[in-house]
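Changelog-adjacent note: as of this version, every example in the card shows the full chain rather than a window. The one below runs 365 residues end to end.
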Amino acid sequence: MGAEELPSPLPKKYEQSPLILGLQPSALIDHIARVDWSLLDQIPGERGGSQPVAIEELMHILSEVKTHILLSPDDPSPIRTIAGGSVANTIRGLTAGFGVTCGIIGAYGDDEQGQLFVHNMSFNGVNLSRLRMKKGPTGQCVCLVDAVGNRTMRPCLSNAVRLQVDELTKEDFRGSKWLVLRYGIYNLDIIQAAIRIAKQEGVSVSLDLASFEMVRNYRSPLLELLESGDIDLCFANEDEATELLRGEQNSDPEAALVFLANHCKWAVVTLGSNGCIVKHGKEIVRVPAIGEAQATDATGAGDLFASGFLYGLVNGLSLEDSCRVGSCSGGSVIRSLGGEVTPENWQWMYKQMQIKDLPVPNLCK
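Full-length structure tokens:
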């Protein structure tokens, strides 16, 4: 959406380039609610995945949520509204929980949701000098969480303001080490442009496969991206990994890991409660999930795993220890609603890292 860019109230100059950048062309606000099964039965599309909806459908779901809330004694706030989006979750986790300097490239609308996104991300220390304000609405997503912590997402980005390809500059990327991306067919043009500039500036690229529906429905352009050799690190969950090799003789997560590692330096397949498997060169590591994590809401589990894993990579940790940190951070976010880790759960994560003899970020010492 080529909306008019407005003068930004955000600071344009920071002292240093962020170590890690996230590209999220459209800022997004998550409405997370714990609901009963009957509401999920009424909503089109498969449970557990992510399927775009129009703004009318999103507003309808939000109105229905109020009569389907599952109250929990552990969580007095049954609905949370926070800055969201996979990339934003990962970047926010890296700054707030690990003290890694991060920035986000994208656009937000001149509305209440846009202001909420800006406030939440800046409060958590994210560099917003590459975030543009535009005239129009900010993207929104309803995240419905069932009684056992599984989440179903219905994003609405069709009318949201969006960063355009010609708005990317080399200066956005200069001096940074990593670019974090999420695969999406609607953003394919800007993803390709960002990768091209990142590679020119010597920035490594991390790609998350987004959702099993996205992999299933838009597999060909995804394969082209992977086969380009420009993706240095790829994250897939078990469902996405299976979809990637659908129709092949062997489409299990291990086969997908090998496939991804043929095209990327680091390949990561997360397996939920079974942990993760990772391949780098000839090294393959399998790390169990953290046993002490109680799943309240799976939203952001993969995003925060990526935060921990990237923290490990940029700090020179071994492949296994990077996975173990990812397991701790992924375990921290599922203990409460939404893709943002609470202060109490960061403390829980630091304690888990200490128990496992992992280097704890300086900011918590």
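Structural remarks: The chain has a mean pLDDT of 91.
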